[in-house]
Design goal:
CATH superfamily of the largest domain: Aldolase class I
Helix content: 10-25%
Shape: globular
Radius of gyration: 21 Å
Number of domains: 3
Structural class: alpha/beta
Largest sheet: 8 strands, parallel
Strand order of the largest sheet: 13-12-11-10-9-8-7-14
Strand content: 25-35%
Number of helices: 9
Number of strands: 22
CATH topology of the largest domain: TIM Barrel
CATH architecture of the largest domain: Alpha-Beta Barrel
Length: 434
């Protein structure tokens, strides 16, 4: 594999002024100024290290477990997507400005270290050697320069490509060019590939062949990026995603800024629709140590199609499902309230927990759904009011826990408080029993 690897230590609050680290494996170094681990591994390794940080407000320490492998780690990807940007804004300077905004607002420190350019980074024609080309007007210094700039900031670059000769915008895809494109992505230092299925035959065996070709090509480079299958669930990628070397796969069509579609349509998913579809198939990902992807976080949406409670519910449900935490609101102008929700430390901790245990769901007569998931240390319990009226419900306390941590209220609650939980429509409450 022999791939280069970077990991920026996430933190919340004021920037640490002092870092210390113990137990890094051979070949890895720590940049104590930026809080970034760098190294190279020739094969998959899993290691634990102890990290401590301090500033004028105090000090803290913890033990982290990380994996260096073709999957880029044990945890779901966190980052930002260009999907909501206007086409004319997709260019090198915008991406670097967004990266700086993500750093200044604490998003990178919280773990949002990927920037994923979904389209319009490439041209519609290839160079004389058949290589895919970056748009010289949008990216005058090339994609490698952009990747290097993001890596210098402790961030990672993602690009989209397509399992057909051209994507839906008429720009270059990678069908029958998988090997040369994978080698190009590797040379550029790309860390994440979102592989779409636009303009491709809606036949399962064809999809498996096309995704398999790209998965093998990426693996053969020696520096395989995270491989995200974006087939939208039509051809059941959860049943074959592992065989094509996918790190994650989408389970439904692009999410819309609404709680629920008025009438179900596979192309009209709201938050609740995407969550229910993803929950149904997440077990396949967990068995293969991959990620089941219900699509973007809508938090910070400029259209405000959902209520504040619905956006909070989405963040809690995505965390419970170990879903990728990728948002599309413009980091340069996103509200402080949206940033606070995106960087909520307890929700991120639940999402990034290394346990691959499936959620156990209970659907209740009062219209609530109870999700339970075993964490590496403790149990997370989420209750969601899927109905259209306020309701009062309860959850059972755990015999091995004297109290539960109420994530929404950032406080411990005694067992007696769990017997009466009032939820407005589409609201959720997440508790962690330690």
């Amino acid at each position: 594999m022999d791939r280069e690897w970077t990991f920026k230590i996430p933190y919340l609050g004021s920037r640490p002024t002092h870092w210390a680290i113990k137990h890094l494996p051979e070949g890895f170094t720590f940049d104590s100024h930026e809080g970034i681990i760098r190294g190279k591994a020739s094969s998959r390794i899993v290691f634990e290290f102890e990290i401590s940080a301090a500033n004028e407000s105090g000090a803290d320490s913890c033990i982290w477990q990380v994996e260096v492998s073709r999957y880029n780690g044990l945890a779901p990807v966190m980052g930002w997507s260009t999907r909501w940007l206007k086409e004319k804004e997709i260019n090198e300077q915008t991406i670097l400005d967004v990266a700086d905004a993500m750093q200044s607002k604490g998003l990178v420190a919280a773990g949002y270290n990927h920037i994923i350019i979904e389209s319009h980074w490439q041209t519609s024609v290839r160079d004389s050697d058949g290589r895919i080309k970056a748009d010289p007007l949008r990216f005058p210094n090339g994609i490698k320069h952009l990747a290097d700039e993001l890596h210098r900031r402790g961030m990672r670059l993602g690009l989209s490509s397509n399992a057909s000769p051209l994507n839906v915008h008429g720009l270059s895809g990678s069908f029958e060019k998988e090997a040369i494109d994978a080698a190009t992505f590797s040379e550029w230092g790309v860390d994440f590939i979102k592989y779409d299925y636009c303009c491709s035959p809606p036949i399962s065996i064809v999809a498996q062949q096309r995704y398999g070709a790209m998965g093998r090509a990426l693996a053969a480079t020696g520096r395989p990026p995270f491989f995200s299958v974006c087939e939208w669930g039509e051809l059941m990628p959860w049943s074959w995603g592992i065989t094509v070397r996918a790190g994650s796969w989408r389970t439904s069509f692009d999410i819309q800024d609404k709680w629920k579609a008025g009438r179900y349509s596979k192309r009209d998913n709201g938050i609740w629709d995407a969550a229910m579809i993803n929950l149904r198939y997440a077990q396949h990902a967990n068995r293969g140590r991959a990620i089941s992807d219900p699509d973007l976080l809508l938090i910070g949406s400029p259209s405000n199609g959902c209520t504040a409670e619905e956006y909070h519910a989405q963040m809690q449900m995505w965390a419970m499902m170990r879903a990728p935490l990728v948002f599309a609101a413009d980091p340069r102008s996103v509200s402080a309230e949206a940033v606070a929700l995106l960087t909520h430390p307890d929700l991120i901790a639940v999402d990034q927990d290394a346990s691959f245990r499936n959620i156990v769901e209970e659907r209740r007569a009062d219209g609530t759904h109870l999700w339970t998931r075993q964490l590496t240390k403790g149990t997370a319990v989420l209750v969601v009011n899927a109905g259209e009226s306020p309701t009062t419900t309860s959850i059972a306390s755990r015999p091995d826990s004297s109290s539960a941590w109420d994530v929404s209220r950032a406080a411990y609650v005694p067992p007696s408080d769990l017997g009466r939980i009032v939820l407005s429509p589409h609201a959720a409450r997440l508790f962690v029993f330690e």
